[in-house]
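Progress report, Aim 2. The chain analyzed during this reporting quarter is listed below.
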Amino acid sequence: MADSPFTEKEILRYRGETPGCGQVIHLNNAGAALMPAPVIDEIIAHIRLEGNIGGYEAAGLVENGVHEFYVTTGRLLNCAARNIAFCANATDAFTRALSAVPFQEGDVLLTCDDEYVSNQIGFLSIARRIGIEVKRVRTASVGGVDLDDLDRQLKKWHPRLLSITHVPTNSGLVQPLDEIAGIIRNYDTLFLLDACQSAGQMPLDVAALGCDFLSSTCRKFLRGPRGAGFLYVSDKALASGLEPLFIEMNGADWIEKDRYRAHEDASRFQAWESAYAILLGSGAAIQYCLDVGVERINQRLKYLASYTRNALSKIEGLRLLDKGPALCSIITFTIEGIEAKDLQTELLSRAKINVVRTLREYAVIDFDRKGVTSATRVSPHYYNTESEIDRLTACIEEILSDRI
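Predicted structure tokens for the chain:
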């Protein structure tokens, strides 16, 4: 376990608390990680409670647990509970924030080549409806945002919004977030950060980053359930009166026939109806992450990602695709002579190894630049082991050998 922050005993403990580790070699944590037992138990317990006494009545009995979700998520991001809204998923959180930006015709929305596909589509939709301009920061030769070009475009266009995805879903790139934050704080531009793939994988401090909004999911590196996400809204954004396009009864009070009053906290961005079992499970997952330690998780993932890239690089015909000033625990590659879909199917059938393919339509700019139409994505988490990575590479070599 050299270079890993966890002892072998600790890894065995985390694996023992993860039922799925006994069923599969799960290397698709950037899709949805294996939930630990405390998370599963929390969800099932509340579903049973709802079944026994009714959904509204069950919600009334878990008010403290519900509140704890906001407190715990605040600890994860270094903010207060009032700055957190529970959402149905990361894109739900992102679009609620995006809809709050007071765009007018002719405004500029500044983003980058590696923004998440749903975000890119959303930008183009707003451009079509309102008449804004979508401009993208140039990509640096080393990968990631060109910081000089970011500063230049902020100064030139005075964009209404800067939107950056911290870690793209289609590669192991980590954007230079500290440097981006240092630049954006010199401008009045709103800053929306998509932390869907970075929450739970690396530390996030919204106080230091100075972002106005941060969106994320719970199902990936936080190891929570599907159907859950959250949105951070800064005090500055709240004080300025920003609210989602379709605010509802959870976020505002109807005080007169033709007037409503938005709530003072981030609840104005939250839907009234929530899946309480999923919310409670998400809170348990975030607490589990904090108990393990985000810094230690980040160190472990850097180690496993390096181990994986090194092992894969020895396979003849395999091309690693990740490029950037820093790389994370998302590893993408192609193999000459085998389609990503076929490789995914073969790995599952031969060795119960979960990986996923990613397609050009998810990352048009990045994949066109790399000259590929699809790729295999491997994303280990801290509970994965070197022997599982070795099994992955051995199985790939077996598959290639059988095709000769």
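The mean pLDDT is 97. The chain has two domains: 8-35+293-402, 39-291. These observations will guide the mutagenesis work planned for the next reporting period.
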